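Why do we care about 3D structure at all? Because function follows from shape, and shape follows, mostly, from sequence. That is the central idea of this module. The next example makes it concrete: a single protein chain, its amino acid sequence, and then its structure expressed as tokens.
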Amino acid sequence: MRKLNQSGQGMTEYILIVALIAVVVIGAVKLFGHKVDNGFKDAADKVGNAVSGK
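And the structure:
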């Protein structure tokens, strides 16, 4: 049987891992967000032009 403090330690480790992943994702979005946004806009324009026959 686990002791109470060991269970709390495991939960704390999971919380720290999730927080680290969140920080990495936020950093990636800030770093690459503008490029990704431009890529989606370009793709949408090309699809729109193909549909409208331009």
